[in-house]
Write a structure and sequence with these properties.
Strand content: 15-25%
Number of strands: 13
Largest sheet: 6 strands, antiparallel
EC number: 2.7.13.3
Shape: rod-shaped
GO molecular function: calcium ion binding; phosphorelay sensor kinase activity
Helix content: 40-55%
Cofactor: a divalent metal cation
Strand order of the largest sheet: 3-2-1-6-5-4
Pfam family, one: HATPase_c
Keywords: Kinase, Membrane, Phosphoprotein, Transferase, Transmembrane, Transmembrane helix, Two-component regulatory system
Number of helices: 11
Distance between the termini: 57 Å
């Protein structure tokens, strides 16, 4: 089995951080380039001065040894003059640390001026290093070990006399090191200061965009597809230059909010008109439907020698008027729930409701296998008993209507999170029927949507039962969900058991009304 590596999600890099990092990187790179150029220029300048000092030391040594000899290092020595390192080092204006080596006809003398102004003698290893100096009048750098460090040296030869003179590079190296450290410190401090300034600047510059982001988040959290939506508060333009890029973004966002708000107001007005129409029409239809049903029942009961066709027609008129009355009552209930009318709130024992509904189901549909699971103690919620009874009735009727005879339907009641601060009552209506087509699950709680069109039509279903369930549950600050596979369909209702003040009923989307 291949080894699986744990992937840690990356934290997204914000625009502010990118800007600050870019500015700091640019300033740091510029500081490094300027520092390197400055260090190299200073080192070249100091090296030039050091080379001049070495040549000057050699010339002074020549003047001390020859007196009237010809100028130049190649005319430094002759056969009659005896020269050694000591005579050179004790010459006039010889700097501390100056080194001299003379090989006069096989006699080797060497030394350097120490801090006390006396002569110290190089070690064998240092003499070996000095032996590598070219004797051609050119300048070279040699490392003489930890005690002396690097030296700038010049060597020459005339006849049988070899002469080497040098000056320590410790002062040059110290100066360059100090400058390098100074450049590093200044660059680091400069980068830190620039980072703070850039962070403050970008924070100020990005504040309008943060306000836009916060406003967008607030809008995204609203349920724009339902209910009443207050007008959106525009993003403040304080500190925003109108013609800038940020200013244009803020202006465009505010324009968008205004357009969306206008569209939502128009949608709400249109939905209110539809709700009022449905409520008014449903209310007005109740009386004529009751009259039609009453007269059809009266004529049917009068009996007599009524033609069989007329009797059948009257029976159909009566049954359809009953179905139409049920549809009108459902529409009127949905319209009232959409308007957010207050429910009758009292303590309701859900145990009693599920027991009564299941007892009715045993009578109305003996062909189904009914099962009940509920706790012995009462499960009490605050709500409208009649409406909650309708929720359970509609869910059980839905299971009965859309499943064949012999289907097992389980109704269970339980308390979820009994030990928590806000326990929830859970009602589950499950069946082992054929299931609901997956493409219908998302729209199952919409109005006039049926899980099985042919079966629902045959049984007189209006397609409003589940829409009523959702509207009532939402009015009780609850939630209803559905999951379905062949052989297992579950409707789950969650209702808060704590005494929660019911929010105004949130009107569900009603595209079909």
């Amino acid at each position: 089995m291949p080894e699986q590596r744990l992937r840690i999600p990356r934290t997204p890099t914000t625009l502010r951080r990118k800007v600050v990092l870019a500015v700091v990187a640019l300033v740091t790179a510029s500081s490094v380039v300027i520092g390197v150029v400055s260090i190299l220029a200073l080192r070249d300048s100091l090296m030039s001065q050091l080379d001049t000092q070495v040549r000057s030391t050699a010339e002074r040594a020549y003047g001390q040894v020859r007196g009237d000899g010809p100028a130049g290092i190649l005319g430094l020595l002759n056969d009659q003059n005896e020269t050694d390192a000591r005579s050179i080092l004790f010459g006039p204006a010889t700097a501390e640390g100056t080194l001299a080596l003379v090989n006069n006809n096989g006699t080797l003398t060497a030394g350097y001026l120490n801090d006390a102004g006396s002569i110290s003698y190089p070690s064998t290893a240092q003499l070996t290093a000095l032996a590598t100096v070219p004797i051609d009048g050119s300048l070279t750098t040699v490392d003489l070990g930890p005690s002396l460090g690097e030296y700038r040296l010049l060597g020459a030869q005339h006849n049988s006399v070899v002469f080497i003179v040098g000056v320590p590079m410790s002062a040059l190296n110290t100066t360059v090191s100090q400058l390098s450290l100074t450049v590093i410190i200044v660059a680091a401090l400069g980068a830190a200061v620039v980072a703070l300034i850039a962070a403050a600047f970008t924070r100020t510059a990005m504040r309008p965009l943060e306000r836009v982001s916060a406003a967008a988040v607030r809008v995204s959290e609203l349920e724009l597809d339902r209910g009443s939506v207050d007008s959106f508060e525009p993003v403040s333009t304080e500190g925003v230059e109108p013609g800038s890029e940020v200013g244009r973004v803020v202006s465009a966002f505010n324009t968008m909010l205004d357009n969306v708000g206008t569209a939502l107001v128009a949608r709400e007005q249109s939905e209110n008109k539809v709700r009022r129409f449905v409520a008014d029409a449903s209310h007005e239809l109740r009386t004529p439907l009751a009259s039609i049903r009453g007269y059809s029942e009266l004529i049917r009961r009068m009996g007599g020698d009524t033609n069989p066709d007329v009797t059948h027609s009257l029976s159909r008129i009566e049954s359809e008027s009953i179905r139409m009355t049920a549809l009108v009552e459902d529409l009127l209930l949905l319209a009232r729930l959409d308007e957010g009318r207050e429910l009758v709130r009292a303590e309701v024992d859900l145990n009693e409701i599920v027991v009564n509904v299941l007892a009715d189901a045993h009578v109305t549909s003996p062909g189904h296998e009914w099962a009940l699971g509920s706790p012995e103690e009462p499960v009490v919620v605050m709500g409208d008993q009649h409406r909650l009874h309708q929720v359970v009735t509609n869910l059980v009727a839905n299971a009965r209507t859309h499943t064949p005879t012999g289907t097992r339907v389980n109704v269970t009641l339980a308390v979820v999170g009994a030990d928590a601060a806000h326990p929830v009552a859970e009602i589950v209506v499950a069946d082992d029927g054929p299931g609901i087509p997956p493409e219908r699950l998302d729209q199952l709680f919409e109005r006039f949507v049926r899980g099985d069109e042919s079966r629902a039509r045959a049984t007189g279903s209006t397609g409003l039962g589940l829409a009523i369930v959702r509207a009532i549950v939402q009015a009780h600050v609850g939630e209803v969900t559905v999951a379905s596979t062949p052989g297992d369909t579950r409707f789950v209702v969650h209702l808060p058991m704590s005494d929660v003040a019911a929010a105004p009923a949130t009107p569900p989307a009603s595209p079909g009304v």
